From TrEMBL:
It is found in: Membrane. It comes from the Bacteria. GO terms for cellular component: plasma membrane. This is MATE family efflux transporter DinF. Keywords: Membrane, Transmembrane, Transmembrane helix. InterPro entries: DinF-like, MATE_fam. Belongs to the multi antimicrobial extrusion (MATE) (TC 2.A.66.1) family. Pfam families: MatE (PF01554).
C-alpha cells in the first residue's frame, strides 16, 4: 500500500475511535473534516486500483511499470494538493462572510490555476516523465511500461487538478458529502473500466492508464454539476463568474507557495522511505 494511503487510513481509524468521546461541537467539526481525509487518498487510491488489476497479468513487468507510474503520479499530483487546501480556506472565509462575489472568485481563480498547471503537465509530460524515470531507476523493461502508462495517465492532469479545486470549494461551502460521492463514483468507474480495458480488451498498462483518465474527467463533470447547484443556491450569477478571475491573485499565489513547500517536504519524506526501505 502506498505510504500516503496508509497514513490516511491509520489517521482515519484513530479519529473514528475517538468520535465516541467527542462533544456535539467536536462532532460537527469532524463532520466536515472526515470528508477531507477521504479526499486526500483519492490520487494514491486510483493508482492502487490500477496496480491491483495489472497484478493479474502474466508478466511482473506490467505490475512494476504501473507501480513506478503510480508512484510518480502520486508524488506529482500530491505536490499540487495545495490547490485544494488553499481553496477550502479562502472559500470558507467567503462563505462565512456571505459574500457571493468572493465565493465566485475563490472558485474561478484556483480553477484557472489548476487548468493551466494541468495543461502544462500534459503538454510537457514527455520530458517530465524522462526526469521522473531517471530518478526512480529500474530495469529497462519496467521503465518502458512505466513510460507507456504515464504518457496516457498524465493526460488527466487538467481534470485531476481541477477536481482538487472543486473538492476544496465544495468543502469550503460545507457540502461535506461531495468528496465521498466523487471518491466512490470515480473509483467504481475506474475499477469497471480497468477490468474491461485491461482484462477484456487486453490493453495492459495503457488500458489501466486510460481507465483512470476517463474516470478523472467523469468525476470532473459530476463535480461541476454539484458546483452549479451550489452557485444557484448562493445567488452567484454568470456575470459574477465572468469577472471573478480579477482580484488579488497574488494573495492566492503566496498562500499556495507556502503550502506547496510543505507538500514538497512531505512527499520527499515519503519518497525517502520508499527508496531506503
Amino acid at each position: 500500500m502506498p505510504p500516503g494511503v496508509a497514513v490516511c487510513f491509520s489517521s482515519l481509524f484513530i479519529r473514528l475511535v475517538c468520535m465516541a468521546f467527542l462533544t456535539s461541537s467536536d462532532k460537527a467539526l469532524w463532520h466536515l473534516a472526515l470528508p477531507m481525509i477521504f479526499s486526500n487518498i483519492t490520487v494514491p487510491l486510483l493508482g492502487l486500483v490500477d496496480t491491483a488489476v495489472i497484478g493479474h497479468l502474466d508478466s511482473p513487468v506490467y505490475l512494476g511499470g504501473v507501480a513506478v507510474g503510480a508512484t510518480a503520479t502520486s508524488f506529482l499530483f500530491m505536490l499540487l494538493l495545495f490547490l485544494r487546501m488553499s481553496t477550502t480556506g479562502l472559500t470558507a472565509q467567503a462563505y462565512g462572510a456571505k459574500n457571493p462575489q468572493a465565493l465566485a472568485r475563490t472558485l474561478v481563480q484556483p480553477l484557472l490555476l489548476a487548468l493551466g498547471a494541468g495543461a502544462l503537465i500534459a503538454l510537457l509530460r514527455t520530458p517530465i516523465i524522462d526526469l521522473a524515470l531517471h530518478i526512480v531507476g529500474g530495469s529497462e523493461a519496467v521503465l518502458e511500461q512505466a513510460r507507456r502508462f504515464l504518457e496516457i495517465r498524465w493526460l488527466s492532469a487538467p481534470a485531476s487538478l481541477a477536481n482538487l479545486v472543486l473538492l476544496g470549494w465544495l468543502l469550503g461551502v460545507q457540502y461535506a458529502r461531495a468528496p465521498v460521492i466523487l471518491l466512490v463514483v470515480g473509483n467504481i468507474l475506474n475499477i469497471v473500466l480497468d477490468v474491461w480495458l485491461v482484462m477484456g480488451l487486453h490493453m495492459n498498462v495503457q488500458g489501466a492508464a486510460l481507465a483512470t483518465v476517463i474516470a478523472e474527467y467523469a468525476t470532473l463533470l459530476i463535480g461541476l454539476l454539484m458546483v452549479r447547484k451550489i452557485l444557484k443556491l448562493r445567488g452567484i450569477s454568470g456575470e459574477m463568474l465572468k469577472t471573478a478571475w480579477r482580484g488579488n491573485f497574488r494573495r492566492l499565489l503566496a498562500l499556495n507557495r507556502d503550502i506547496m513547500l510543505r507538500s514538497l517536504l512531505l512527499q520527499l519524506c515519503f519518497g525517502a522511505i520508499t527508496v531506503l526501505g
